[in-house]
Amino acid sequence: MKIGPRTPNIKKRISARTTGAINRKIKTSTSPLYGQKGIGWVKNPKRAAYNSLYNKITFGFGSDEGCLFGCGCVSIIVFIVMMVFIYNIISTILSIN
Prior knowledge:
Elements: E1 4-5, H1 10-18, H2 21-30, H3 39-43, H4 45-57, E2 58-59, H5 73-96
Parallel strand pairs: 1-2
């Protein structure tokens, strides 16, 4: 099992983005279980368990996968800006005296 960043693959990325909506509509109309949440656990529980664990312990670098630095980067940036602001205020107060 891989841990950490996923290896980017251009071919798989293009293939995933070009799979048409027509194909999904055909599968939805012919298979009543297609696209239902939790069906992976019914059809193939071993693969569903593996995929669930894999998605939790790996991360990607694409723009479609959210922030590159994790979900808490906005709060970290705000914290750093506030610390710089407070540092500037304290340094000006100490330099006046």
